[in-house]
Amino acid sequence: MLRAAYMAQELLTTFSQEIKGVLLEPSETNGTYIIYINDTILFDRRDFSRFPEIKELKQLVRDVVAPEKHLGHSDRQ
Predict the structure, then answer these.
(1) What pTM does this model have?
(2) Within a domain: residue 77?
């Protein structure tokens, strides 16, 4: 839960004008870690066999909510 809370805080800070909230929902299945925007899955730990890096997660969210937004050091090179 600590990693999810950190990532939620990073997303809320980075996208303060674009997103209005982040929901952290505990799962009954251990190891579940799925990032959604509305009903679209952006990242599922089962598919990648790992957690996302924060840079990667910010890019995935940006591509949906604000494609024109520059992420500074988190942006693709």
Answers:
(1) 0.85
(2) no
